[in-house]
Design brief:
Number of strands of chain B: 9
CATH topology of chain B: Rossmann fold
Helix content of chain A: 10-25%
Largest interface: A-B, 39 and 40 residues
Number of strands of chain A: 7
Order of helices and strands of chain A: EEEEHHEEHE
Low-confidence stretches of chain A: none
Distance between the termini of chain B: 23 Å
Helix content of chain B: 25-40%
Strand content of chain A: 15-25%
Strand order of the largest sheet of chain A: 1-2
CATH architecture of chain B: 3-Layer(aba) Sandwich
Distance between the termini of chain A: 44 Å
Largest sheet of chain A: 2 strands, antiparallel
CATH superfamily of chain B: Thiamin diphosphate (ThDP)-binding fold, Pyr/PP domains
Mean pLDDT of chain A: 92
Structural class of chain B: alpha/beta
Largest sheet of chain B: 8 strands, mixed
Radius of gyration of chain B: 18 Å
Number of helices of chain A: 3
Number of domains of chain B: 1
Oligomer: heterodimer
Structural class of chain A: alpha+beta
CATH class of chain A: Alpha Beta
Strand order of the largest sheet of chain B: 3-1-4-5-7-6-8-9
CATH architecture of chain A: 2-Layer Sandwich
CATH class of chain B: Alpha Beta
């Protein structure tokens, strides 16, 4: 329970990362990215990013090279399936 | 400018570390829906997997305001939110009512129908994972023929699902669309378009469910694409009565070759007991529907 500025009591939830804990612990296989095959890393410019687009949990960062946040990655393997260059494998 | 993976906004409204299953199509769809609405939205959610995604008090994993509402009252709750925003003069905020297929096809249909008849100004999105997945995979009004569920455990469901988009079309809505979480850019564009229109807008989103449908988590995208390629799911939009096929369904209609339904069924454990005659029944149902859509489509 919190009190708003207007003195009304409210019981809102507040947004935070990791609501269900460290969901990376659910994972049995870990995605490994091979930057020598990854299209944005090879071309050194903004391109492809299909893994970022399809990742349900938004744990892939649209940077060059691409970063995967393993603390929260649930290990579903969608990124492996959608990668056109086969640059991600599960290990 | 056409949206693609490179120029799509990086702002995330669905945060990592949420409670949904790995490879959840709903999370993927919801991520892109909230991106399309720029976070300027109030969501109202009945009991569904979406409540699970929103998380337990005092933490939520979604960065937009949300109202949890009883199962049968999504449409009524959205009506109230619209009235409240109108009274306080906040025009920039969209009201999004989002429910599962149980909350739309079965339990929530009367409040939705009432709100649609009053032409209340909100977007209603039904994400369709073809069953009550949150409570243990019971049969719903949208479960397909032959699927094994918690309440049809041996022979599978014996009826075809109801066509909710057609039911909503009978309410003369300004915008109705069907989409699929495996085509996130198509979904993004449709939500974007719906945002600019006034009145009740309805979007039906197909969302495969790995644990409920019994396929590997990694195949979520593939199963969704296969559903479109076999014609079980057709992507279209109806804008002021004008019917258009969109994205993958449009190119399929141009090429004119649907894959056999059998290919889609074989990939999922829930169809393991489906009989041969049920498969041909399902194939006939798909073919008839597909021909109707081709006849109606105005864009090719």
């Amino acid at each position: 329970m919190r009190t708003r500025d207007c003195k009304h009591i409210c019981d809102e939830s507040s947004p935070a990362i990791g609501e269900a804990g460290k969901t990376g612990e659910w994972r049995s296989l870990t995605p490994v990215i091979h930057h020598n095959k990854c299209i944005p890393a090879k071309q050194k410019k903004q391109s492809c990013f299909l893994c970022w687009l399809y990742c349900p949990d938004a744990i892939i960062k649209k940077t060059i090279p691409i970063q995967i946040n393993l603390e929260y990655c649930k290990g579903c393997g969608i990124c492996v399936q959608v990668c056109p260059a086969k640059a991600i494998t599960m290990a | 400018m056409k949206v693609n993976a490179v120029n799509l906004t990086e702002t995330e409204y669905v945060l990592p570390g949420n409670r949904t299953c790995p490879g959840c199509a709903l999370t993927l769809a919801y991520r892109h829906i909230l991106k399309a609405l720029d976070g300027q939205v109030i969501v109202t959610v009945p009991a569904s997997c979406l409540t699970v995604l929103h998380g337990m008090y005092p933490i939520t994993s979604v960065n937009v305001p949300c109202v949890n509402t009883p199962f049968a009252s999504t449409g009524a709750s959205a009506t109230g939110l619209v009235a409240g925003l109108r009274a306080t003069g906040r025009k920039e905020i969209t009201v999004l009512a989002m429910a599962g297929d149980g909350g739309t096809h079965d339990i929530g249909i009367q409040s939705l129908s009432g709100a649609a008849e009053r032409q209340e100004d909100f977007i209603y999105i039904c994400y369709d994972n073809e069953g009550y997945m949150n409570t243990g995979n019971q049969r719903s009004g949208s479960t397909p023929l032959g699927a094994i569920t918690g309440t049809t455990p041996i022979l599978g469901k014996r009826q075809n699902p109801k066509d909710i988009a057609a039911i909503m079309e009978a309410h003369c809505l300004p915008y109705i669309a069907t989409s699929n979480s495996s085509y996130p850019l198509d979904l993004y564009e449709k939500v974007r378009k719906a945002k600019e229109i006034k009145g009740t807008r309805f979007i039906h989103v197909f969302a495969p469910c790995a644990p409920g449908w019994q396929f590997p988590y990694s195949d979520t995208i593939k199963i969704g694409q296969l559903a479109v390629e076999t014609g079980l799911v057709v992507l279209y939009e109806v804008e002021n009565g004008i019917f258009r096929l969109t994205s993958a369904s449009e190119s399929l209609a141009r090429k004119g070759n649907l894959k056999p339904v059998r290919e889609y069924l074989a990939k999922q454990g829930r169809f393991k007991n489906i009989a041969e005659e049920q498969i041909s029944q399902l194939q006939d149902w798909v073919n008839t529907r597909w021909e109707c859509y081709i006849d109606r489509a105005t864009n090719f």
